[in-house]
């Protein structure tokens, strides 16, 4: 908080307290010349008197003012003054979080360090993993882990970065950065982009113009095979997807393929180890693993839909 606003708030607080004190003093006694009654009369003889508030009532208000001053001295509430107690909402939140984290880690301790394929055979671990996934991963991959355009489906058998347990765990802990640069300038012309895109379509068995596909094959070999392989089957070490199956992260129609060639793609998954820790990452990985491997058949809602 800046100095100006701090002083402004302190002055505002002081003026409000002083105003309350003045108002109580002003209304606590009768002043000369004031009428005995307000002039209101009911039923002929019931009059409303004009008298100060009772002394005990006034004193209660003074006590609340004293309490207010003490509160503002003890707790932060007057501008940037931190208070003599040293209390902050951040410290209280951190303390509460530490208590909650200790309880959570105690509950997760039995699963610590276990491989995700082993955890996937434990229904309790899979159920915990489903909760971790729902809280941290479902925003991108969906509550059923089936993904969306630009976000991988984790419930099928296609794994861009490899399907072994360690690869899955590494994706969660360290994140992934999948970058495909634009290749329009490298290919040199719209015709070359067209031919290359049609050849990529043909790799997955889509009906295409054979002549265009044949013309695109050598272009693919010269430009794209370095990452996707000579046969287009991808390279998990680079995160280059298999182009011969029917799984398309951004769509398998020609327009989507052409956009990828011309503009490139940039997919990023953030590292989750700093966010959820290793044990919870393993549990989330176990639930994902169970979706495509079915190892936790008795896990109830933790199994694949």
UniProtKB/TrEMBL annotation:
Pfam families with a match to the protein in the record: Cytochrome_CBB3, FixP_N
Protein's UniProt keywords contain Transmembrane helix: yes
Similarity comment text for this entry: Belongs to the CcoP / FixP family.
Gene (UniProt): ccoP
Domain of life: Bacteria
Keyword Phosphoprotein: no
Transmembrane segments: 6-25, 56-75
Subunit: Component of the cbb3-type cytochrome c oxidase.
Subcellular location: Cell inner membrane
Name of the featured protein: Cbb3-type cytochrome c oxidase subunit
UniProt pathway annotation: Energy metabolism; oxidative phosphorylation
Named cofactor requirement(s): heme c
Keywords: Cell inner membrane, Cell membrane, Electron transport, Heme, Hydrogen ion transport, Ion transport, Iron, Membrane, Metal-binding, Oxidoreductase, Repeat, Respiratory chain, Transmembrane, Transmembrane helix, Transport
Major location (coarse): membrane
Free-text function comment from the UniProt entry: C-type cytochrome. Part of the cbb3-type cytochrome c oxidase complex.
Residues in Cytochrome c domain copies: 124-204, 211-292
């Amino acid at each position: 908080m800046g100095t100006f606003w701090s002083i402004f708030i302190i002055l505002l607080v002081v003026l409000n307290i002083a105003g309350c004190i003045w108002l109580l003093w002003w209304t606590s006694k009768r002043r000369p010349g004031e009428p005995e009654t307000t002039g209101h009369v009911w039923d002929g003889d019931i009059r409303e008197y004009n008298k100060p508030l009772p002394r005990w009532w006034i004193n209660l208000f003074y006590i609340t003012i004293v309490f207010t001053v003490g509160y503002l001295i003890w707790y932060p509430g007057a501008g940037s003054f931190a208070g003599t107690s040293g209390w902050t909402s951040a410290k209280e939140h951190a303390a509460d979080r530490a208590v909650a984290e200790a309880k959570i880690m105690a509950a997760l301790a039995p699963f610590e360090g276990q491989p995700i394929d082993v955890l996937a055979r434990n229904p309790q671990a899979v159920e915990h993993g489903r909760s971790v996934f729902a809280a941290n991963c479902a925003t991108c991959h969906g509550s059923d882990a089936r993904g969306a355009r630009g976000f991988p489906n984790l419930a099928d058998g296609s794994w861009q970065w490899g399907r072994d347990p360690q690869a899955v765990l590494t994706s969660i802990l360290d994140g992934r950065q999948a970058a495909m640069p634009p290749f329009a300038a490298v290919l040199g012309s719209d015709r070359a982009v067209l031919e290359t895109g049609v050849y990529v379509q043909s790799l997955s068995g889509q009906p295409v113009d054979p002549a265009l596909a044949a013309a695109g094959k050598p272009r693919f070999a010269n430009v794209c095979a370095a990452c996707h392989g000579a046969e287009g089957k991808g390279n998990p070490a680079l995160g280059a997807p298999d182009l011969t199956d029917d799984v398309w992260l951004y769509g398998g129609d020609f327009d989507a393929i052409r956009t990828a060639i011309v503009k490139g793609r940039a997919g990023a998954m953030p590292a989750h180890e700093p966010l959820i820790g290793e044990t919870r990452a393993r549990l989330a990985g176990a639930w994902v693993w169970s979706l495509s491997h079915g190892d936790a058949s008795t896990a109830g809602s933790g199994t694949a839909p």
